Amino acid sequence: MQVLQLIISGIAQGCIYGLIALGFVLIYKATETVSFAQGELMMLGAFLGLALMTVTGLPFWLAVLAAMAAMAVFGVAAERAVIRPILGQPAFSIVMLTFGIGYVARGAVTMIPAIGTETHTLPVPYKDQVWKLGELVLNVEQLVVIALTVVLCGLLFTLFRYSKIGIAMQASSQNQLAAYYMGIPVQRLNGLVWGLAAAVAAIAGLLLAPITFIHANMGFIGLKAFPAAVVGGFGSLPGAIVGGLIIGVVESLSGFYLPEGFKDIAAYIVVLAMLMIKPNGLFGETMRKKV
Amino acid sequence: MRFLFKTSYDQDIALARHGGQRFWYGLLLVLLLAAPVLLQDYGLAQLTFVLIYGIVGLGLMLLAGFTGLFSIGHAAFLGVGAYVEAYLVARGVPFPLALASAMALSAGVGVLVGLPALRVKGLYLGIATMAFGFIVAEVFARWESVTGGNAGTHVKAPAIGGWALDSSIELYYLCLVLAVASTLGILNLLRSPTGRAFVAIRDSEVSAQSMGIHLARYKTMSFAISAALAGLGGALYAHMIKFLSPDQFDIIQSIDLLLMVVIGGLGSVHGAFLGAMFLIGMPQLISASKDVLPDAIGQAPGLKAVVYGAVLIAFVLFEPMGLYGRWLKIRTFFTIFPFYRKGMFKRQKSFQKSDRLR
Question: Rounded mean pLDDT of B120-126?
Fold first, then answer.
């Protein structure tokens, strides 16, 4: 029973990692850029949701939608303002740029007087409820995370499979130039992908908020989503979720069975092992370099 | 205007290209030697930090700027150097020996990290080094018998026999000598076949390989040298700050180090020191500006992060060659005075080289 309990809480945590990793993968597939600002986008989304709920008094679900929409706009704006001008430059310049965005976002939130430096709890309707299922004690917060992740994955799947825009995104992620020749507005799509990634990050932030707290440094959890993305194979959307689940479960189990301290680094040990054995990840495509 | 008239091939690889350079670098050295007389205690301490970070920056510059391998866990090497130095000096090992062991152990760890680097590239390497950095930081926190754990550990002053270098002036000269030595070492390395091989790997692995460069060997070598310099910097850092705790070597420090080389100017030796000056000088500037700014902005704790981030974004967008690139432009403007054109350093429109192989 205890193992099951641990695995469920691991899956819930893993869903969060998976959602953040989804953001990395979306951006990577579309623009071949790695965004280190994803964790900070999540933090911004959480703060935005908090502000909407406490200041304007919106109900939780409306606040989630509003925060998502606002973060999507923010993502599109960030792409337009700083990423697009240097597209095509070495990948590392863009990585440093996303570090810069992360710094600014973290600093800007900290600068908000009396709010930025505190930790907050998000007043969600399902706070501190538990379901008892036999011997199993199920935390509703964790169940909501799992359920919403499943729904979100379904939505994204439908988007990419059936909608015109999703198919265009797939095409441009496979070959930008060919997609451009087919009349797909690649640049505008890249902006949309950033918006989508930011919206997903906002959901991740709002789902994480009841489990941990909301504070300016919560974005650092985004660094744990990198292992998730790598384990799943960096270019694969289902891989991101699976990788997230693996990392989450490993972390949860090692926190219980291994000595203290292993919980924090379990994810990194897994990713190092993965890079040694199978650098392309579980679902990654293997491609050979041609000159 | 100055015309360089080359009469022998040796001039192509000479450290100083003309008399002017000899004069200015000589003047810089004289000023640095006289710094303890010219500066107050506080200024001297800041200058020492610039030299220490400059040494670490040189290492990272060799790796990131000249070999094209990016490490997001360089603080780990810094930490290894610092803790080895602290541990050995506390047990009475003579200081030069401790310093050498710090460098050697860091280099060993660097080779260890470099091994996966042979299989993975680009972004995967960054993530591998980041993962490694996290693991090392955790080891620093948990291995209490050696590192003192989260409570931290004190560092004794460096000593050779009965002669202890315990004043700030002696420490400054120690850092100066080592910084000059490592700069000359790196410059020398870069004009040798090894250094050329590093640059070739950065520009194109495939063509480097087809020119007969052993990728695995040179990448590992670059990692080892870079880590050794970080270890040297770490050892000096330990003596300078006199108190070590694991949170000095976390991911923030690693990102700061990267920020330092990017702002200094990737691919230039000057950039390491210019970046170090930025990293050390910026907090001073910010705290100086606090009196001028309104309280709501000036006293806010996040100001430093916002300024760093904004400066980083501005540099990547507008001055990809960093502070050194800016200096190059100013210098070119004056050396060819009436003929400077606006487009001389214009970034070429380039198409992204795909990391994804197909």
Answer: 76
Contact B126 A216 (CB under 8 A): no
| Interface TM-score (ipTM) > 0.95 | no
**How deeply is B26 buried, as exposed, middle or buried, from its count of CB atoms within 10 A (0-12, 13-18, 19+)?**
exposed
User: End-to-end CA distance of chain B, in Å?
Assistant: 49
H or E element, residue B244:
strand B243-244
Residue B159 in 3-state DSSP? strand
Is the CB of residue B293 less than 8 Å from the CB of residue B244?
no
Is A269 close to B135, i.e. CB distance below 8 A? yes
B interface test, pick of A268, A277, A278 with most B CB neighbours within 10 Å: A268
Tokens of B40: 């107050």
pLDDT of residue B235: 92
- Identify the burial level of B244 via C-beta atoms within 10 angstroms of its C-beta, where 0-12 means exposed, 13-18 middle and 19 or more buried: buried
In this prediction the pTM is 0.88
Q: What phi and psi, each to the nearest 5 degrees, are found at residue B15?
A: -65, -45
- Note the pLDDT tens digit of each residue in A103-124: 898 888 888 777 777 788 777 7
A136 pLDDT higher than 50: yes
Chain-chain contact of B320 with A223 (C-beta, under 8 angstroms): no
Residue B73, both tokens: 């866990």
Q: Two tokens at B22?
A: 């000899």
**CB contacts, 8 Å: B73 with chain A:** none
Q: Which residues of B touch A231 (CB under 8 A)?
A: none
**Other C-beta atoms within 10 Å of B184: how many?**
11
Q: How confident is the model at residue A291 (pLDDT cuts 50, 70, 90)?
A: very low
